[in-house]
């Protein structure tokens, strides 16, 4: 339970900073977290759709970004670093009303980089697979000071 509470604290901080995460993913729900991994859910709403009525690739990319960050937070990191690389493979679609299940895993936190994997699915159907690399050297310093991203 400690990992879940910590990740919720980090996510609440992300949302309190405003900006794109708060705008695009305000409905994201943290379901569970253990060391280095977390499970989230998001109901696909009208603002998440592209012009053809499917879940927008930009939203799925944002989910990979945030999901990777939350998996790093689940490693007991208070700050989660900055993105250096993001890769998303769009496997199938999602539509209005679908519940996205977001499984995020931190594969490794090193002294300079952290590597994460994110799987987005609807039921048994994989919607997108993502990999996210983050620069965490400065985040380690913030972690020692127990500062969350955005705190001075």
From TrEMBL:
<dbReference type="InterPro" id="IPR039298">
    <property type="entry name" value="ACOT13"/>
</dbReference>
<dbReference type="InterPro" id="IPR006683">
    <property type="entry name" value="Thioestr_dom"/>
</dbReference>
<protein>
    <recommendedName>
        <fullName>Thioesterase domain-containing protein</fullName>
    </recommendedName>
</protein>
<keyword id="KW-0378">Hydrolase</keyword>
<dbReference type="InterPro" id="IPR003736">
    <property type="entry name" value="PAAI_dom"/>
</dbReference>
<feature type="domain" description="Thioesterase">
    <location>
        <begin position="53"/>
        <end position="124"/>
    </location>
</feature>
<dbReference type="InterPro" id="IPR029069">
    <property type="entry name" value="HotDog_dom_sf"/>
</dbReference>
<comment type="similarity">
    <text>Belongs to the thioesterase PaaI family.</text>
</comment>
<dbReference type="Pfam" id="PF03061">
    <property type="entry name" value="4HBT"/>
</dbReference>
<dbReference type="GO" id="GO:0047617">
    <property type="term" value="F:fatty acyl-CoA hydrolase activity"/>
</dbReference>
